[in-house]
């Protein structure tokens, strides 16, 4: 006989969507449980996604800088890679952060129920623990926050030995001499960058004829030029039709999308990073009459599914598969459940590629505005004209601001350059407040900082950039 | 610091104009002393000091438009005044003046259509210089620049940003609206030249209101008029027969207005659409019969309301109309006397009108026009006979009242007047 506990809200999944939902529910005084299959909280993001990849990006960036840039600054060193230590510092950080969520759960009286959650019927979640024991949770509301998993590709079998997905690519046992990345999206370019900096020859194979779909085309072009200069190779408009792994490497069959002869390319490792799929396996959607769409996404209307009392947030629903999108939806869905006015501004979810240079953007890009027939003005400012970037010898990239020609309201902000991930938030706030480019242009920014480029670009919208 | 607030102005009054301050900032004031006079569409009111002290600030200058709750100014409690209270324009303190929230009736001059109750007037972005400050508006840096460079009143720009913040787009829109502002704003700046034997007189606020409301009624309603005529023989005979005993018993003359009021209530019950109003996408049906009776005065037409006319006898209606008309002529009408009518009767016949098309008293949906009684040859049972006839006009809002309803309504009124026993039997 399974033990039954009654809750106000049961959240299935402990990633950025799930754990933030649980914390917010706890704050609002709801009796809440968060069901997580992993042995640690944090989901893909903390365990095998955003967080460990940023740990590797940071460490590898410093290694690369020590190799290539320190001498310019007058520091002569001969860096030596200690890969196990690099992996350990990554694991330590991840461990601390997942423990941090456990602490936040306790602080907000969230019950962490360990095991795989399954919706057994209306208001019922069955949790099967690792030892096979089953617990039943009764709940007024159920929030699905089960996230996503790496998408597969016919002909390419991920064995996480020689052919790895993003999880495997975070923990390769050695620096490959050569690595082929399938997919020129954010994950592929970030992890490709990590291993290139540590010494691998990296080739990126992409089906489309451009990298980074969703990124403003001008930024993507500049970005590709940067990565190419760093030594990354690109095969665009190329389709992978097969992969054969051996003990020591992989041979990959690639055909031009436009037609033509197939070729075989060899590498020590292959990273498959063509995207992610919603993860709903074994979730019991059928028990409450929810049908996922063709691609596995759960349809929602303001985070409500078609089943009463069942909600869905994050990667299992439509929209960008981003931790911060899931986090915003978590807050909004829980606040709605609690009778408050939950809201997510889907037009202002920023995107970031954490490479060098970084690319960050929020709002709409030029192609989207053109397609929508929305007129816009452009203001641009290069980091070569920014003093801080210049003295740091990191003057690559530029800032581009798009604004309404009539009201001057900012429509999009596109940043490519050093640490722009930390700067795009300024435009998120400005745009959330419907700011005009002139508002940023007339806001005092500290000197010397890279953030001055944001202001100078905003000035450019109305033609009064002063420092370029 | 005590705020001097704009009081509630009456249910259908949404704004007032600051007519006059009796004190300057810095003057000493005493509690309940009249500080400021407000003018509304219907009445003027006086607002008194909320406390003893010094008038610290005048927030709404003379000419400013204010809404209930708007802060007019502030009094620093207990402070001593500057220079001397005697410097005030009207120094005589009026400690026994009416409490600040009591509206004082204005001398007669009044308007015809009432304001639409429950419909707040949206703050215009177009007229930046007449609106009084709401709370402190928050302007984006760019909007501040636009406002400063173009002398826009920040308080008059409606903000579309978070929490009502004014964005650059809002400020630019206000600027554009000002540039495109039609006649009302532009006209005074370029008044027509006055020729010999011409005289220019500024419209009173009441006259402006009459003009605006009549035009609003025409603009919003799908207004048209249907006519009928009524043979007054029966009611005239009735009156002749009973006028003495009626007056003796009730102390008031039996007139046609009470009979028409009764006939109208009778007809409204048959055709409820005429007693209804449109509110947004809804229709509000009124199960009460408050009949406005237009009364001419020296300064204009006023429409005091006879409440629950269905529950009153003819004598009571006559008394009520008589009392209201006297109040109107004496300028003693209060806001309450003028509000909430569901239908209006206007009698142009007293001035000799034979036929007219009255304009609706918005938001009402019907108005009955009575006219001059004139003896005319009529054909009755194949014979030409002389009958005292009156044309009746019903102007109605076709959005809510169908032609059939309007015509039926007027036929009900006609039938009741031609055969007043119907009123007794309710048929």
Automatic annotation (TrEMBL), chain A:
The keyword Nucleotide-binding applies. It is an enzyme of class 1 (oxidoreductase). Residues 349-458 form the Pyridine nucleotide-disulphide oxidoreductase dimerisation domain. FAD binds at residues 54, 117, 146-148, 315, 321-324. It comes from the Bacteria. Residues 7-330 form the FAD/NAD(P)-binding domain. Binds 1 FAD per subunit. GO terms for cellular component: cytoplasm. It catalyses: N(6)-[(R)-dihydrolipoyl]-L-lysyl-[protein] + NAD(+) = N(6)-[(R)-lipoyl]-L-lysyl-[protein] + NADH + H(+). The active site is at 447 (proton acceptor). NAD(+) binds at residues 183-190, 206, 275. GO terms for biological process: 2-oxoglutarate metabolic process. GO terms for molecular function: dihydrolipoyl dehydrogenase (NADH) activity; flavin adenine dinucleotide binding. Disulfide bonds join 45-50. The active site is a redox-active disulfide bond. PANTHER family: DIHYDROLIPOYL DEHYDROGENASE, MITOCHONDRIAL, DISULFIDE OXIDOREDUCTASE. This is Dihydrolipoyl dehydrogenase. It comes from Phenylobacterium deserti. The lineage of its organism: Bacteria, Pseudomonadati, Pseudomonadota, Alphaproteobacteria, Caulobacterales.
TrEMBL record, chain B:
Its EC number is 2.3.1.61. Keywords: Acyltransferase, Lipoyl, Transferase, Tricarboxylic acid cycle. Pathway: Amino-acid degradation; L-lysine degradation via saccharopine pathway; glutaryl-CoA from L-lysine: step 6/6. Residues 138-175 form the Peripheral subunit-binding (PSBD) domain. Residues 1-76 form the Lipoyl-binding domain. PROSITE patterns: BIOTINYL_LIPOYL, LIPOYL, PSBD. Residues 79-143, 179-198 are annotated as: Disordered. It catalyses: N(6)-[(R)-dihydrolipoyl]-L-lysyl-[protein] + succinyl-CoA = N(6)-[(R)-S(8)-succinyldihydrolipoyl]-L-lysyl-[protein] + CoA. One of its GO terms (biological process) is tricarboxylic acid cycle. GO terms for cellular component: cytosol; oxoglutarate dehydrogenase complex. One of its GO terms (molecular function) is dihydrolipoyllysine-residue succinyltransferase activity. Belongs to the 2-oxoacid dehydrogenase family. This is Dihydrolipoyllysine-residue succinyltransferase component of 2-oxoglutarate dehydrogenase complex. It comes from Phenylobacterium deserti.
């Amino acid at each position: 006989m399974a033990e039954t506990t009654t809750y106000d809200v049961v959240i299935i999944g402990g990633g950025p969507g799930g754990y933030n939902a649980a914390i917010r529910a706890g704050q609002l005084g709801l009796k809440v449980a968060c069901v997580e299959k992993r042995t640690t909280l944090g989901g893909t993001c903390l365990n095998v996604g955003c967080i460990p990849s940023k740990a590797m990006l940071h460490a590898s960036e410093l290694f690369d800088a020590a190799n290539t840039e320190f001498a310019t600054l007058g520091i002569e060193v001969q860096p030596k890679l200690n890969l196990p230590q690099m992996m350990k510092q990554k694991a330590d950080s991840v461990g601390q952060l997942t423990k941090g969520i456990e602490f936040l759960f306790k602080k907000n009286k969230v019950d962490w129920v360990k095991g795989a959650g399954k919706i057994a019927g209306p208001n019922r979640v069955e949790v099967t623990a690792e030892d096979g024991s089953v617990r039943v949770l009764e709940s007024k509301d159920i929030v699905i926050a089960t996230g996503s998993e790496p998408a597969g590709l016919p002909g390419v079998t991920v064995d996480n030995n020689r052919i790895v997905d993003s999880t495997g690519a975070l923990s390769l046992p050695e620096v490959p001499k050569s690595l082929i990345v399938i997919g020129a999206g954010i994950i592929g370019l970030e992890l490709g960058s990590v291993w290139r900096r540590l010494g691998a020859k990296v080739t990126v194979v992409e089906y489309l004829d451009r990298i980074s779909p969703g990124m403003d085309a001008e930024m993507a072009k500049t970005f590709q030029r940067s990565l190419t200069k760093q030594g990354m190779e690109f095969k665009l408009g190329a389709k992978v039709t097969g992969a054969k792994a051996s003990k020591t490497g992989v041979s990959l069959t690639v055909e031009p999308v436009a037609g033509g002869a197939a070729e075989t390319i060899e590498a020590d490792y292959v990273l498959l990073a063509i995207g992610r799929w919603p993860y709903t396996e074994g979730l019991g959607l059928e028990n409450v009459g929810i049908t996922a769409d063709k691609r596995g996404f759960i349809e929602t209307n303001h985070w409500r599914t078609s089943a009463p009392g069942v909600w869905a947030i994050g990667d299992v629903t439509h929209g960008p598969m981003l931790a911060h999108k899931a986090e915003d939806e978590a807050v909004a869905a829980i606040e709605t459940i609690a009778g408050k006015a939950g809201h997510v501004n889907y037009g202002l979810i920023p995107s970031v590629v954490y490479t060098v240079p970084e690319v960050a953007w929020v709002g709409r890009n030029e192609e989207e505005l053109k397609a929508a027939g929305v007129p816009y003005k452009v203001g641009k400012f290069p980091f070569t004209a920014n003093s801080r970037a210049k003295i740091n010898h990191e003057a690559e990239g530029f800032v581009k601001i798009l604004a309404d020609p009539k009201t001057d309201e900012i429509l999009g902000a596109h940043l490519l350059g050093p640490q722009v991930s930390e700067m795009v938030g300024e435009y998120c706030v400005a745009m959330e407040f419907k700011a005009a480019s002139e508002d940023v242009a007339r806001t005092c920014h500290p000197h010397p900082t890279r953030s001055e480029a944001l202001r100078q670009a905003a000035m450019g919208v109305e033609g009064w950039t002063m420092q370029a | 610091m005590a705020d001097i607030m704009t009081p509630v102005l009456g249910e259908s009054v949404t704004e007032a104009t600051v007519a006059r301050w009796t004190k300057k900032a810095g003057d000493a004031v005493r509690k309940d002393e009249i500080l400021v006079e407000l003018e509304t569409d219907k009445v003027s009111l006086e607002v008194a000091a909320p406390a003893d002290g010094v008038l610290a600030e005048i927030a709404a200058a003379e000419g400013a438009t204010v809404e209930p709750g708007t802060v007019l100014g502030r009094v620093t409690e207990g402070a001593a005044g500057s220079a001397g209270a005697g410097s005030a324009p009207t120094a005589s303190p009026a400690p026994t003046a009416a409490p600040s929230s009591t509206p004082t009736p204005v001398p007669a001059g009044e308007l015809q259509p009432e304001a639409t109750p429950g419909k707040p007037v949206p703050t215009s972005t177009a007229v930046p210089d007449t609106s009084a400050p709401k709370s402190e508006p928050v302007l984006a840096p760019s909007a501040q620049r636009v406002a400063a460079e173009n002398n826009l009143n920040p308080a008059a720009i409606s903000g579309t940003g978070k929490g009502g913040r004014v964005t650059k787009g809002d400020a630019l829109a206000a600027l554009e609206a000002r540039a495109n502002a039609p006649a009302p704003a532009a006209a005074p700046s370029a008044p027509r030249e006055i020729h010999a034997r011409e005289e220019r007189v500024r419209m009173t606020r009441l006259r402006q209101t009459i003009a605006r409301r009549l035009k609003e009624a025409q603009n919003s309603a799908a207004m048209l008029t249907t006519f009928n005529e009524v043979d007054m023989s029966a009611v005239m005979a009735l009156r002749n027969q009973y006028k003495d005993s009626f007056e003796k018993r009730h102390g008031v003359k039996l007139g046609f207005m009470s009979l028409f009021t009764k006939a109208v209530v009778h007809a409204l019950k048959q055709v409820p659409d005429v007693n209804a109003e449109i509110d947004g996408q809804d229709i509000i049906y009124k199960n009460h019969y408050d009949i406005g009776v237009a009364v001419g005065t020296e300064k204009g037409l006023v429409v005091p309301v006879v409440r629950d006319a269905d529950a009153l006898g003819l004598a009571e209606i006559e008394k009520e109309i008589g009392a209201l008309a006297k109040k109107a002529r004496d300028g003693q009408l209060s806001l309450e006397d003028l509000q909430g009518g569901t239908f209006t009767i206007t009698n142009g016949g007293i001035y000799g009108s034979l036929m007219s098309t009255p304009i609706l008293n918005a938001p009402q949906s019907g108005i009955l026009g009575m006219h001059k009684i004139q003896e005319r040859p009529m054909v009755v049972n194949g014979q030409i006979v002389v009958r005292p006839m009156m044309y009746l006009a019903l102007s109605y809002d076709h959005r809510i009242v169908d032609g059939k309803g309007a015509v039926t309504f007027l036929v009900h009124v006609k039938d009741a007047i031609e055969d007043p026993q119907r009123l007794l039997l309710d048929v």
